[in-house]
Amino acid sequence: MSTNAILYAIAVLGGLGIGFGLLLTLADKVFYVPVDERVVRVREAVAGANCGVCGYPGCDQFAEAVVRGEAPVTGCTPGGGASASALAEIMGLDNVDVEPTVARVRCQGGDGIAKDSFQYQGFKTCRHAMSLSGGPKLCPTACVGLGDCERVCQFDAIRMVNGLSVIDPDKCTACGACITECPNSLIKLLPRAATVTVRCMNTQAPKPANLSCDHACIGCKRCEKACEYDAIHVTNFLAEIDVEKCTLCEACVAVCPKQSITVSK
After folding, report:
1. Cβ atoms 174, 77 nearer than 8 A
2. What is the pLDDT of residues 72-124, one digit of tens each?
3. Where are the domains positioned within the chain?
4. CATH homologous superfamily of domain 37-90?
């Protein structure tokens, strides 16, 4: 191949490269969509977990929604108060106070506490186990203990201990992933300060509840009678605490015959 042919090929390729470069530059200018710098700042101020608890597919979409005024600055639960305050400042809003929340397991039915109805030998997932005759526990709302919640937690906040889900409140970001995953809806988001908790979700009548779990609430109403602040009531054989009224006096804890009410960390 002659030198002229080689130079010609190089010139053609170089010209094409320059031409495509100019076209791309022109297209970038023509189709440029301005980005509100607040979106970038909001995105940097959220937790970055892409957990979806805010109601959006990811943090990018949440940041855009905040800037459009469609999502609250408190929407990033994993980011907590620091994230909410930063977003409020970016959006020019008054500083907001966010009460810290944490996921609590409303069950104590680990191995030897909640009685088994049969020995489960199938796939090691709680949802699959619950699809078989209502689950392997006599209590229909007991923790199955196969770790679905542990597997979805991005923050290493959940461990299975003796067949029971245990949440470390110091690691929990209240993202809500475990709440969605639990087939028995045993995990609830509660204020971090609400340390007095009914650790049971069993609404069976007293006799079957008593037979199914050593710590099942039997609806005796002793807690309700002991509370001076009208903060606890029994409905459908299950005690429920009004966190707005509860003073953490622990009178209900002291009188519960089944130790269904506990003081959490």
Report:
1. yes
2. 988 888 888 888 889 999 999 887 777 889 999 999 999 999 999 999 998 99
3. 37-90, 101-263
4. Electron transport complex subunit B, putative Fe-S cluster (1.10.15.40)
